[in-house]
Amino acid sequence: MYKLVLIAAFAILTSFGISTGIPSNTILSTGDTLKVLEPKPEHASEAYVITNLLKRYHYRKLPLSDSISNVIFENYFTSIDPNKAYFFKDDIKQFEGLRYKLDTQIPEGDLDFAYHAFELYRERALNRIDYVFKLLETEFDFTKNESYTFDREKEDWPTNDAERDEVWRKIIKSQALTYKLSGNDWEKTVKGLKRRYERIQKAIYQYNSEDVFQSYMNAYTNAYDPHTDYFSPPDAANFQIDMSLSLEGIGARLMQNLDYTQVAEIIPGGPAYKSKQILKDDRIIGVAQGEDGEFLDVIGWRLDDVVAKIRGPKGTVVRLQILKASKGQNALPDTLRLVRDKIKLESQAAKAELIPISEGNSTYKLGVITVPSFYLNFDELNAGVKDYRSTTRDVKNLITDLKKQGMDGLLIDLRFNGGGSLQEAIEMTGLFIPDGPVVQVRNTDQSVDKMDDTDGGVVFYDGPLAVMVNRGSASASEIFSGAIQDYKRGVIIGESTFGKGTVQNIIDLDRYIRNPDMKLGQLKMTLAKFYRVTGSSNQRIGIAPDVQFPSIYDADEYGEASRPNSLPWDEIANANFKPTNNIDEELLDNLNALYRNHLNTDKDLQKLMKEIEEAKERRRQSSVSLNYEERRQPEPEQQEGLSASVDQDEVSVDDEIKKKLEEDPYLKEGLRLLAEITRKKIG
User: Fold this and answer.
1) Which of 463, 466, 523, 553: disulfide with 558, CB 3.0–4.6 Å?
2) Could you tell me the CATH superfamily of domain 243-339?
3) 349-682 belongs to which homologous superfamily?
4) pLDDT digits (tens, 9 = 90+) for 519-548
5) What span, in angstroms and rounded, lies between the C-alpha atoms of 654 and 656?
């Protein structure tokens, strides 16, 4: 049994953010001094163990080589200076002699490169903060027509002080303009930015040996694939948090990437999940209490301090300012209001409703089952509880209830379902197919396990079926939807999925170094890969819907294919399976023709397509204007809040369902297509 994991991390040092006010006790005190950063005694042993685990058990079986060393070198400098705003070009050159030697140094426990490079980064960063304070002595001229290139990935490092000063002048001017656009005068802008950089300054003074080792080991492990990570011991690392605490409040697991608090995972059923307005990889830059509390700028805060502000009693309001990963940089932060709650299994569970849809001269009762994740109560299962909770059991009960209400067709909504239990993905597939393999798993030794539906050939629901997915559907969601598609059992509708086709396990390094005086970390490592029954991997390409809706996300921006060093797509031999052939090419052609007709005639879909293209165009921009009049022009309405109006002669529903479809035109279109499938099947 595997537990599917969808976790990703990246670090960004400069961005736009706005808020005012911060507790005064976070300001750097004059007594703070820079610590000498050097490896701990156990770090050499950990590096040796990590090397051997990667060599023996990682799925890729990549030998340490000059090529891997080069990737580690690049990863490390990218992790500490991703925007090329701190180091000089000559700084990088002084380390060039080590570019192809790290593969021999790390197994021997030689970690000097990482600590020397980090010491230099720290020196350069403190120098930049001094320059920021100097810049804030004079108000910027926001009438000048100039721009700031925020995406410096393809730029080179500055060659001298003048070049670097100009980069930072525009960084700070852009941040100051964001304050001004939110109604702050120059005095408040200076106060807010000074406090922000004082906190960053304090954080730099607080970096310790574990922080450097974790960054370096992740530069190493990420050279194998983006889901292989090293985690420092919880009581030593600055970037870790008790996850049981992070589940309380808004229902999000948070992580720290240097100066920013970033969303690592949205918990299904929680306030954040229900809002659909904050997603994985978004960054939280401001937190306010209640309906009218003052926003605190949390850039540069420690993670546990940010979490303390976000958490609170059930039923209370917290407001967040977030930088959406899906938006271009030429946008103000979004403000999000959430009511805190405790995350319970019931709130994460699948839910159903019956929606009548008119198509042609008939009205069909269509069931919609929303599955936020593939969950299984392992504690109850292991304790022998007869009625333990699981996705499959809940979906089965929901289908039974919908049948009693006269359901004509069923839509399974897997949008934003990031995965969960593989066992549940297999068992839920078994509700809709007679029997046979559901997924293949190739292990690190290249052996292949075929994982079958084992319900004895019983089909619990054999009626018209559609599955809706989007770019946020990953792992177990892709296994289920891929099997439904391969068995030709139902129609897949929506956006291409995330494309995560790998399996990870977490390994405690204490198992390999038995020393009670040492507190060691963990290694999360990729051990296996998923394949469809056709033999095709889900990796990178995901599941391509039978009816493809436009997506606000491109594969190279959000998804497995966008991640450096992600494992490639490939294929193995197909499994022996027998399609149901409920879905044929003629039906798919008919559905796609119907969808194209709706695109040409439906004003709601046309509006949505326009918003998507505008959002994509904004994200393609690599620079932003620093002119106040130009930047203060109102932005077009964002696509995130899906909006549409539904004609009553098209959809006959009560007011609550009508509102739901007005806010979600993709669901509306999915149901219209399901109505056509139902019409073809039952007349």
Assistant:
1) 553
2) PDZ domain (2.30.42.10)
3) 2-enoyl-CoA Hydratase; Chain A, domain 1 (3.90.226.10)
4) 889 999 999 999 999 999 999 999 999 999
5) 6
